[in-house]
Amino acid sequence: MNHYPAPIIRVIHNFGKLPGIGGKTAERLAMHLLNAPEADCLELSASIGALKKSVGLCSQCFALSDGDLCKICASPVRDRAILCVVENQADMVAIEKSGAYTGLYHLLGGLLSPMDNIGPNDIRIRDLISKIEKNTIREVIIATGTNVEGESTASYISTRLSGYPLSITRIASGVPMGGDLKYVDQVTLKKAMEARHAL
Question: Which regions of 52-97 does DSSP assign to beta strands (E)?
Fold first, then answer.
């Protein structure tokens, strides 16, 4: 890489710090920017600078937001009596893309993991309970993953909320659409059998 001028090496080095970007991709991106119009480079630079200055957490659900409230919490058409509990922003976005949910969210910011010394005080469970106590919530949907941490977090939240006058539900898990049973793992098949429903 020494055959490039220092400013290009610096850009390649910085691109290489990004997840999923190897040396060749970083080099290709740097060369693309070098040949791109200056206005495009300045816009990219300005947008990256604004990212850290303008984006914070929503004061209600803890999703990424460029204001006090995210667009979902600020929306007057969302059902405020239903709360979907997810681990992080990516999980919330996945549910939003499905178009199947119209309530509000609560992002935990992690999952319980005793092996990693992550307990109830390290994720936003107290905030969840406070939210339930201050608002009229009729249903809490627990939408954590089906790995060990996700299941233990769901179980813990369910236990903590059991004394409140609301419905606690868990998203279904099982065989994916178009899935061939012989390729589905045993745990997924077990969950699918347990969550079966009438047709």
Answer: 56-57, 64-65, 79-86
- 180 vs 190: CA distance, rounded Å: 15
Residue ranges per structural domain of the chain? 6-54, 64-172
- 139-161 pLDDT per residue, tens: 999 999 888 899 999 999 999 99
Enclosing H/E stretch for 106 = strand 103-107
Candidates 3.90.640.20, 3.40.50.1240, 1.10.287.90, 1.10.8.420; CATH matching 6-54: 1.10.8.420
Considering the entire predicted model, what is its pTM?
Answer: 0.81
The dihedrals phi and psi of 68, each to the nearest 5 degrees, come to -60, -40
Q: 10 Å Cβ neighbour count for 22?
A: 11
